[in-house]
Amino acid sequence: MERFEVNFLLRCAVGFPLRDELECCGVRLRVDGDIVHGTATVHAENREGAKQKGRELAEVVASALTLVFGRAFSVEQINVNQASQRREGDRQVIEAKDVALIYDQAKAASYTMNWKELVAMYMRLLTTIRDKPESKKFIRVLKWWIAGDVDDDPLDKFLKYYIAFELLAAALGYGRRCNKEWAKQFCKDFGITYKINEKFSLPRIRNSLVHDPGEEREEAERLAAQHAERFGLELLEAIRKALLQPSGPPVDASASKNCETDSGCGDQ
Q: What is the spatial distance between Cα 40 and Cα 267, in angstroms, rounded to a whole number?
């Protein structure tokens, strides 16, 4: 196994008023406005293996920051350098080539939130579930949420949030336990608005966007655009709650088998 230094760059979807540093789970972070620089040492058979491990670490950090601050952080750049070793007396010194990262200057501002402990907590949780093969679906929930947050089109934003919504509910076993009422029960348990108006629920909006032509689709488009941001915020809070359950997020792999098809699921 060789030793590599991985450097990665994350970017927030919006301007981010924070400058600080943090080290957790073997990763050193430097936050500079909407840019986050990360550095970690990994062991791998080759450079490709090191890059894969580096990407996994970067995605854990991006997910943790997203959970804490409620806005998407995405992985923009990953660099891998093989570390050389030399000895100075009784000490073994690791050297790695510096990587120059070019980024936009972010605005300096104060930020009072006690964010370091929260980011460290989520990094530890996400690292724990990442090591369980059956829990990879939960990581995908966050990826779809992030994809929705950064999408500028309100309809695409709503649909990506809905995929994350389906995956999270299925991972928690709602499709198996609740049959066609899964969406309604899941929303009730996790504080998500289910009925948008007397006619349209979340599943009906989704299914009308995907399948129905005519006036119903037009109304669904209007409601999806109007409520996408609220849906995303409520869904992120549900993701946090699921992560922080005492037993961790219970994942039912069989229940989530069909949740990314275009056939839709849930009640109307």
A: 46
Q: Which residues contact 109 (CB under 8 A, 6 or more apart)?
A: 17, 18
**187 Cβ contact partners less than 8 Å away, ≥ 6 residues apart:** 193, 194, 202
State how beta strands 84-88 and 35-44 pair.
unpaired
Q: What is the pLDDT of residue 249?
A: 53
Digit-coded pLDDT (tens) for 215-234: 889 999 999 999 999 999 99
The span from the CA of 69 to the CA of 118, in Å, is 10
How far apart are the C-alpha atoms of 141 and 27, rounded to whole Å? 23
Please, which pLDDT band fits residue 1 given cuts at 50, 70 and 90?
A: confident
Specify the pTM.
Answer: 0.73
Residue in this structure with the two tokens 């196994």, named with its chain if needed: 1
Give the number of residues written for the chain. Answer: 268
- DSSP-derived 3-state class of residue 8: strand
